[in-house]
């Protein structure tokens, strides 16, 4: 179709560009399930959806407000310069000749390029507007270029620390990816796949589960898991030690009781033979 018109070629280029970009984003969706890069992909998603959305909402309010204020100031400066030089206002150069250009110029100022803007503002022939413009310039640099961008960095740092502190986040993302893939299949296909990778549990064969055999080694454990295992081993040793002390104490207590019972038992008297005196006579 590109041979019919150049517009089709342009459309094909735009479509190819969008396909390449969205393919990369779609590839990041599956990278969430990887242990090494999954948390970082989640950080990007969280920062884009939460932190940057809040920042751009506040930033847009400041940007639009200051841009229209500077547009009025530069329009007054252009009018004063045209009257001083005796030229039409259309022949005088104005870097903020329309509201859209003023918004773009404010955005360029935000990233640090403000020398051209300040030079044009300083050359304004309207004294009052020049002073007001300098005051607005200082306020814009303080509240937008410095404060808001530092707040954005702090928000992204907080998000990074929250996600990096979780050890099992990639497993949850892995489960979400599997769930999304299962939802994209038909119910019949999901049932066939379920019978392939699941195993019956218990006596009820209708209940099936995915069996995971994990080979645990000391090297594969994280620092938190190692500390937890060491704590469990210490608790087990302490419990065994306490149980042994209790048994030894019970045995010692039982032995003491036996000795006391032996000392307190009265000698048995035989009733078969009558007791006799010293001279051999029996006592009735």
Q: What is the residue-averaged pLDDT?
A: 79
Question: Regions with pLDDT < 50 over 5+ consecutive residues?
Answer: none
> From the alpha-carbon coordinates, what is the Rg to the nearest angstrom?
43 Å
Percent of residues in helices:
over 70%
Distance between the termini: 141 Å
Helical segment count: 8
Structural commentary:
Keywords: Coiled coil, Membrane, Repeat, Transmembrane, Transmembrane helix. Its main location: membrane. Residues 21-167 form the Ion transport domain. One of its GO terms (molecular function) is calcium channel activity. The chain crosses the membrane at residues 14-34, 55-74, 103-121, 133-156. The protein is an all-alpha fold and 284 residues long. It has 3 domains: 14-166, no CATH class; 171-210, no CATH class; 213-253. The protein contains 8 helices and 2 strands. It has helices spanning 6-31, 38-85, 99-110, 115-122, 127-164, 169-183, 187-197, 223-264; strands spanning 199-200, 208-209. It has a two-stranded antiparallel sheet with strand order 1-2. Strand 1 and strand 2 form a beta hairpin. Helix 2 (38-85) crosses helix 3 (99-110) and helix 2 runs antiparallel to helix 5. It is elongated. The protein starts with 5 loop residues before the first helix and ends in a 20-residue tail after the last helix. The model has no long low-confidence stretch (mean pLDDT 79).
């Amino acid at each position: 179709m590109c041979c019919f018109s150049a517009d089709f070629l342009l459309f094909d280029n735009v479509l190819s560009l969008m396909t390449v970009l969205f393919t990369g984003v779609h590839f990041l969706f599956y990278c969430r399930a990887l242990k090494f890069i999954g948390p970082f992909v989640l950080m990007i998603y969280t920062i884009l959806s939460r932190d940057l959305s809040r920042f751009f909402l506040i930033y847009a309010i400041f940007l639009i407000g200051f841009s229209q204020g500077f547009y009025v100031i530069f329009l007054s400066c252009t009018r004063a310069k045209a009257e001083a030089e005796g030229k039409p206002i259309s022949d005088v150069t104005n870097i903020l000749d329309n509201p859209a250009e003023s918004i773009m110029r404010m955005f360029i100022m935000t990233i640090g390029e403000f020398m051209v803007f300040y030079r044009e503002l300083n050359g304004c022939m309207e004294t009052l507007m020049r002073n007001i413009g300098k005051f607005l310039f200082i306020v814009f640099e303080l509240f937008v270029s410095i404060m808001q961008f530092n707040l954005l960095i702090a928000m992204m740092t907080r998000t990074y620390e929250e996600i990096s502190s979780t050890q099992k986040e990639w497993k949850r993302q892995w489960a979400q990816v599997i769930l999304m893939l299962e939802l994209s299949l038909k119910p019949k296909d999901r049932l066939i796949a379920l019978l392939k990778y699941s195993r019956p549990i218990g006596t009820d064969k209708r209940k099936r589960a995915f069996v995971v055999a994990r080979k645990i080694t000391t090297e594969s454990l994280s620092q938190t898991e190692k500390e937890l295992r060491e704590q469990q081993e210490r608790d087990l040793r302490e419990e065994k030690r306490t149980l042994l002390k209790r048994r030894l104490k019970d045995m010692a207590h039982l032995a003491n009781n036996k000795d006391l019972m032996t000392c307190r038992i009265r000698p048995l008297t035989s009733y078969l033979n009558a007791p006799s005196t010293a001279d051999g006579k029996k006592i009735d």
